[in-house]
Amino acid sequence: MKKILVVFSGPKFLFHVLEQAISLAREDGSLLVGVFLRPPTPSEIIYPFINEASSVSNAFYLDEAGSEEAVLIKAQVTLFSDTCLANKVRFATHLEGGTPVHELLKESVFADLIVIDAKADLYGASPSLLTTSLREFLADSHCPVLVVHEKAQPVENTILTYDGSASSMHAIKMYSYLFASQLQKPAFLVCVDEGPHSDLPNSDKINSWLGQHFTNLQTDVLTGDTKNVLSAYINKHQHNSIVVMGAYGRSAVSRMFRQSLANYIISQTTIPLFITHG
After folding, report:
1. Model confidence, pTM
2. Domain of residue 116, residue span
3. C-alpha dist (Å) from residue 186 to 61, 155, 237
4. How many domains does the chain have?
């Protein structure tokens, strides 16, 4: 069982995010925690992350008189609860105050997974694909994040992206630990070699490990530009799939490269993307 945070921000109820989370929770009785983020104040937009300004911000309470945001969140909480009850999954809600991004980062320390909309805007502006706040949150989250597009479908296949790095291997490990029920389903290990040869890095070691976890695995080693080749491959296999990627590395160089690649994949496809640090 896992603790999965389901993030709601903005006026629109995110049915596709909740549906994806429910499909995962059903598999092992995981707990879904609905995290309902209020719009940030102007000062919090200036200081959105963990710092002295955000740590002393005022709490937000649903029983504030005349609060339009409170009415909206109350309705979303009710819809979340009713949907979880109807689908017979365990659930709870998180309504603590504080800076929205600060609260979400703090909660990520104590979660196994976060499910969030690909258009989430934690700064309170109009939702759009891969907002600045979402990119920054993905870079700083303390647990894996599942980014879900509105057109996402239930997961039946897994695309494991691998480049020989510890980051990509860490992502595959975390996915296998969190989603053991998916390991019997079809999976594709895809590696893109930008050189003249199609070589799988550390092939003996990676194949030995994968053989202990995935029972229906196909390996594809491709050549060409990583962004273009990988996005084309994912689009070809995207029906009912999820992409696993070790992105947003901790070092400056790895963060720059992997963040750019993850952002590109999110912008070019409509399937869920499982992202971890490494």
Report:
1. 0.85
2. 3-148
3. 45, 10, 11
4. 2
